[in-house]
Backbone:
């Protein structure tokens, strides 16, 4: 599966939720709903932190974890 497919799927999945879904990489914070932000940030086998806050955050966390796992990407989902 290509890098681009992972980015599109992450963005599309995040867009299904009203919660804020933000990916942290080093000192950058990227809105996962932003394709451009993801294209400029997701590189190689880096490790990321995912911050999810909002009314549907439990469902959003699980859905995003599933997409990251599917694409073999390392992510730590930060708790409340």
Residues:
């Amino acid at each position: 599966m290509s890098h681009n497919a992972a980015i599109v799927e992450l963005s599309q999945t995040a867009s299904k939720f009203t919660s804020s879904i933000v990916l942290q990489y080093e000192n950058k914070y990227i809105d996962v709903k932003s394709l451009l932000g993801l294209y400029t940030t997701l590189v190689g086998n880096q490790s990321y932190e995912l911050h999810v806050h909002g009314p549907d955050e439990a469902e959003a966390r699980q859905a995003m974890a599933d997409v990251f796992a599917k694409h073999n990407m390392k992510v730590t989902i930060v708790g409340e």
User: Anything to note?
Assistant: The CA atoms of residues 11 and 33 lie 5 Å apart.
